[in-house]
């Protein structure tokens, strides 16, 4: 159970990686507060397709544990004038992942783009609204580096911090998805080894099975407007398609 400790006995340095990594990560998952079935979870993303490219392992793990997951996408991804198509693709992708249609929301209030500035105050108002509507006690989003460094991703993290400062007694726990160094970002499943080495006690790791990975790939195929060659490389090699590392917001 999550309250128990476990002792792993090995014979050689490197055994923990070569033979026991999936078990270690599975045990870590059991302690994960974000995987508690008693709470609803709200995932906040910036663009349609973020749910597949970055958060699929966590979405699928939460759904498997019977957690009700709500997703709010703050923009329609209309940077190239494809917003209407991308909204439809987003909903199709979320259904593929197993999310309920009524729990998936794609907004058009914020206009996406690397040169667009999003107001922390306006985003925080949206977050508070959907936290209340969904009765979520856990909020999941990007960290301060935004995984890919996209300003729209970073803006959501800034809004969460802004909201935490203004809310003296927050009724929710915010978790942010860790941005790893570029040398680890495209190691896919092989990033298990550095993940274990650099993991600290305050972090939570979610590891997908290969079946879940292929489910995420299937969902990503709904985003037909986005399937240019370099995104296929991301799908094939990104560690975030299989591994999510979470930290709480201080």
UniProtKB/TrEMBL annotation:
One GO biological-process annotation of the entry reads: GPI anchor biosynthetic process
Provide the E.C. number(s) assigned to this enzyme: 3.5.1.89
The entry assigns this protein to a family as follows: Belongs to the PIGL family.
Q: Which GO terms describe its molecular function?
A: N-acetylglucosaminylphosphatidylinositol deacetylase activity
Organism of this sequence: Ciona intestinalis
Its domain of life reads Eukaryota
Q: Matching InterPro entries, A to Z?
A: GlcNAc_PI_deacetylase-related, LmbE-like_dom_sf
**Leader sequence segment:** none
The enzyme's first-digit EC class, named in words, is hydrolase
Q: What is this protein called?
A: N-acetylglucosaminylphosphatidylinositol deacetylase
A GO cellular component term found in this entry reads: membrane
**Record Gene3D superfamilies:** LmbE-like
Pfam families in the record: PIG-L (PF02585)
């Amino acid at each position: 159970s999550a309250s128990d400790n476990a002792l792993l006995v090995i014979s050689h340095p490197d055994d923990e990686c070569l033979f026991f990594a999936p078990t270690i990560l599975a045990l870590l998952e059991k302690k994960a507060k974000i995987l508690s079935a008693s709470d609803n979870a709200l995932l906040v993303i910036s663009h349609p397709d973020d749910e597949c490219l970055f958060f699929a392992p966590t979405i699928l793990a939460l759904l498997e544990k019977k957690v009700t997951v709500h997703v709010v996408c703050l923009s329609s991804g209309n940077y190239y004038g494809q917003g209407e198509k991308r909204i439809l693709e987003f909903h199709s992708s979320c259904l593929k992942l197993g999310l309920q249609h009524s729990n998936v929301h794609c907004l058009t209030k914020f206009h996406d783009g690397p040169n667009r500035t999003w107001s922390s105050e306006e985003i925080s108002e949206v977050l508070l609204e959907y936290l209340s509507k969904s009765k979520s006690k856990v909020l999941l989003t990007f960290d301060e580096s935004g995984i890919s460094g996209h300003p729209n991703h970073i803006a959501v993290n800034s809004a969460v911090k802004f909201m935490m400062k203004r809310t003296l007694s927050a009724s929710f726990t915010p978790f942010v998805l860790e941005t790893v160094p570029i040398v680890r970002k495209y190691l896919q499943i092989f990033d298990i080894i550095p993940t274990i080495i650099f993991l600290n006690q305050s972090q939570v790791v979610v590891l997908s099975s290969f079946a879940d990975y292929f489910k995420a790939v299937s969902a990503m195929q709904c985003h037909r407007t986005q399937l240019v060659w370099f995104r296929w490389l991301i799908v094939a090699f990104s560690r975030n398609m299989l591994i999510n590392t979470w930290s709480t917001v201080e």
